[in-house]
Amino acid sequence: RKPVSLPRLHEMRERGEKITMLTAYDATFAAAADSAGVETLLIGDSLGMVCQGLSSTVGVTLETMCYHTESVARGLRRVQGTAWIVADLPFGSYQESKEQAIRSASALMHAGAHMIKLEGGGWTTETVAFLVERGIPVCGHLGLTPQTVHALGGYRVQGRSDSDAQRLRRDALALQDAGADMLVLEMVPALLAAELTPELSRCHTIGIGSGNGTAGQVLVMHDMLGMGLGKTPKFVRNFMAGNDSVRDAMAAYVAAVKDGSFPDNRLHAW
Ligand code: KIV
Ligand code: NA
């Protein structure tokens, strides 16, 4: 198997093949996801919640992100894995300046990431262009952006009003123009995500709680294994149901995303 690369992802996109992503935080589960055929692994700052027991992602540090990124990268090396590794820039590690952003992004790249992800639109455009010009592939993240949960007033659907939807569309197109190759859309209306996706032909939309019209899907691994702490969002499916192993559950997720049976748009009334 050849390593997943940006050209490979673009080829998949052109063929209309859905891109799969799962979060990964350690060597063993990263290797399992890779062998199940998950093309892209995200070391999400959701690790603050699922690994560290924090109540939001706001407290996650760059050092912690690097630790988990190194673990995932080593796990993949051990099994000659091929997944594309995306790592989150945590809260406070890129907001100050473009220079701060590239220092933090470099730390994640040194730890083994192939691409970094950062949250938000508008002001982030300049930062994304700065990173991309300097050779760092970037994934954006719009809609529900958990690092700004306190400013948003809670975990809820974004882009519902016309003006919010217009701003989201503007932000998404600006991120594509800045050179972002990927964009997570979290909890945005399924119709909006589906309309935006063809406009973002150079920037693969990866949806979570955003319906089945995106170029790919992502879930927090613990959620899709039925192991979420607290309330599991209703768009999540427990892929352990009917499967005997974590690897099989991950393979079932891949199959369901590829054949369009996950997610179910009826669970995305927004
Ligand atoms: O941190 C994370 O797991 C994420 C995904 C949910 C997109 O950002
Ligand atoms: Na995240």
UniProtKB/TrEMBL annotation:
<feature type="binding site">
    <location>
        <begin position="45"/>
        <end position="46"/>
    </location>
    <ligand>
        <name>3-methyl-2-oxobutanoate</name>
    </ligand>
</feature>
<dbReference type="GO" id="GO:0003864">
    <property type="term" value="F:3-methyl-2-oxobutanoate hydroxymethyltransferase activity"/>
</dbReference>
<dbReference type="InterPro" id="IPR015813">
    <property type="entry name" value="Pyrv/PenolPyrv_kinase-like_dom"/>
</dbReference>
<feature type="active site" description="Proton acceptor">
    <location>
        <position position="186"/>
    </location>
</feature>
<comment type="similarity">
    <text>Belongs to the PanB family.</text>
</comment>
<dbReference type="GO" id="GO:0005737">
    <property type="term" value="C:cytoplasm"/>
</dbReference>
<dbReference type="GO" id="GO:0000287">
    <property type="term" value="F:magnesium ion binding"/>
</dbReference>
<keyword id="KW-0566">Pantothenate biosynthesis</keyword>
<dbReference type="Pfam" id="PF02548">
    <property type="entry name" value="Pantoate_transf"/>
</dbReference>
<feature type="binding site">
    <location>
        <position position="117"/>
    </location>
    <ligand>
        <name>3-methyl-2-oxobutanoate</name>
    </ligand>
</feature>
<keyword id="KW-0489">Methyltransferase</keyword>
<comment type="function">
    <text>Catalyzes the reversible reaction in which hydroxymethyl group from 5,10-methylenetetrahydrofolate is transferred onto alpha-ketoisovalerate to form ketopantoate.</text>
</comment>
<feature type="binding site">
    <location>
        <position position="88"/>
    </location>
    <ligand>
        <name>Mg(2+)</name>
    </ligand>
</feature>
<dbReference type="InterPro" id="IPR003700">
    <property type="entry name" value="Pantoate_hydroxy_MeTrfase"/>
</dbReference>
<feature type="binding site">
    <location>
        <position position="119"/>
    </location>
    <ligand>
        <name>Mg(2+)</name>
    </ligand>
</feature>
<feature type="binding site">
    <location>
        <position position="88"/>
    </location>
    <ligand>
        <name>3-methyl-2-oxobutanoate</name>
    </ligand>
</feature>
<dbReference type="GO" id="GO:0032259">
    <property type="term" value="P:methylation"/>
</dbReference>
<keyword id="KW-0963">Cytoplasm</keyword>
<keyword id="KW-0460">Magnesium</keyword>
<comment type="subunit">
    <text>Homodecamer; pentamer of dimers.</text>
</comment>
<dbReference type="GO" id="GO:0015940">
    <property type="term" value="P:pantothenate biosynthetic process"/>
</dbReference>
<feature type="binding site">
    <location>
        <position position="45"/>
    </location>
    <ligand>
        <name>Mg(2+)</name>
    </ligand>
</feature>
<dbReference type="InterPro" id="IPR040442">
    <property type="entry name" value="Pyrv_kinase-like_dom_sf"/>
</dbReference>
<keyword id="KW-0479">Metal-binding</keyword>
<dbReference type="GO" id="GO:0008168">
    <property type="term" value="F:methyltransferase activity"/>
</dbReference>
<comment type="pathway">
    <text>Cofactor biosynthesis; (R)-pantothenate biosynthesis; (R)-pantoate from 3-methyl-2-oxobutanoate: step 1/2.</text>
</comment>
<protein>
    <recommendedName>
        <fullName>3-methyl-2-oxobutanoate hydroxymethyltransferase</fullName>
        <ecNumber>2.1.2.11</ecNumber>
    </recommendedName>
</protein>
<keyword id="KW-0808">Transferase</keyword>
